[in-house]
Amino acid sequence: MKIEASAKSVRISPRKARLVVNEVRGLSVIQAESILQFMNKKGAEIVLKVVRSAAANAVHNSNLAKKDLIVSEISVNEGFTIKRFMPRAFGRATPIRKRTSHIRVVLAETAEAKQAREAGKKTVKKAAAEKNAEAPKAEIVAEKKTADAKAKAAGKETKNSSTAKAKETTKESK
């Protein structure tokens, strides 16, 4: 199961954000958080927020444990560029480009956690199937008993009650 989170139009250059992102790709969420907390880069704080958001999505929406998640995909794409200018000598101006980034984080379960979860689902499904198989049988037996009781009250013989009487008479005759 893949869990995703993103931050759009973040005011950091994509080139600088990629330096941070490349350090945490493929790590577990807990390792990535600890690395990002102590990294001395502006982008580390921004990427940390997105990783924590993705982890919170996984825990809240998909009921996954934070310790079982890894950063499977993380990417930084270029957003829009804010254009400004800087006045220079002799009446000239040079452009300033304030770049933005789109950061996308995709978390996945570790293989061991996925196998354990699927094994748990299989046992739950088997138990539910067995329970469902037993439930109709019990309902049918209960319906037959109520039908026999109603028939006896009305003074009629049912198929089940007549066969039961026949069995009783054969046992008595032996």
From TrEMBL:
GO terms for cellular component: cytosolic large ribosomal subunit. PROSITE patterns: RIBOSOMAL_L22. One of its GO terms (molecular function) is structural constituent of ribosome. Keywords: Ribonucleoprotein, Ribosomal protein, RNA-binding, rRNA-binding. InterPro entries: Ribosomal_uL22 (IPR001063), Ribosomal_uL22_bac/chlpt-type (IPR005727), Ribosomal_uL22_bac/org-type (IPR047867), Ribosomal_uL22_CS (IPR018260), Ribosomal_uL22_sf (IPR036394). The keyword Ribosomal protein applies. The keyword RNA-binding applies. Signal peptide: none annotated. It holds the Pfam family Ribosomal_L22. Residues 118-174 are annotated as: Disordered. GO terms for biological process: translation. The globular domain of the protein is located near the polypeptide exit tunnel on the outside of the subunit, while an extended beta-hairpin is found that lines the wall of the exit tunnel in the center of the 70S ribosome. Part of the 50S ribosomal subunit. Belongs to the universal ribosomal protein uL22 family. This is Large ribosomal subunit protein uL22. The gene is rplV.
